[in-house]
């Protein structure tokens, strides 16, 4: 609700955990504060998630995809 009300705050940007600080992404927000704004924030979050996944896939090192130690 915060980001649908004009507040650009996301814990992943303020206090990055895991590897979020290694990816380029934007906090999605809207200023209107209504249901449409909340919907648009969610759609924007899904698009940013796709960008994060694409960046993560690019960083996967090459090599065998099978665990040969088993």
UniProtKB/TrEMBL annotation:
SUPFAM superfamilies: HydB/Nqo4-like (SSF56762). Residues 1-67 form the NADH-quinone oxidoreductase subunit D domain. GO terms for molecular function: NAD binding; oxidoreductase activity, acting on NAD(P)H; quinone binding. It holds the Pfam family Complex1_49kDa. Coiled coil: none annotated. It comes from the Eukaryota. The keyword NADP applies. One of its GO terms (cellular component) is chloroplast thylakoid membrane. InterPro entries: NADH_Q_OxRdtase_suD (IPR001135), NDH1_su_D/H (IPR022885), NiFe-Hase_large (IPR029014). Keywords: NADP. Belongs to the complex I 49 kDa subunit family. This is NAD(P)H dehydrogenase subunit H. The lineage of its organism: Eukaryota, Viridiplantae, Streptophyta, Embryophyta, Tracheophyta.
């Amino acid at each position: 609700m915060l980001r649908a009300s004009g507040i650009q705050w996301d814990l992943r940007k303020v206090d990055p955990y895991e590897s979020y600080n290694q990816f380029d992404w934007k906090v999605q927000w809207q200023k209107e504060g209504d249901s449409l704004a909340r919907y648009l924030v969610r759609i924007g979050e899904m698009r940013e998630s796709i960008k994060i996944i694409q960046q993560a896939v690019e960083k996967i090192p090459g090599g065998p995809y099978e665990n040969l130690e088993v």
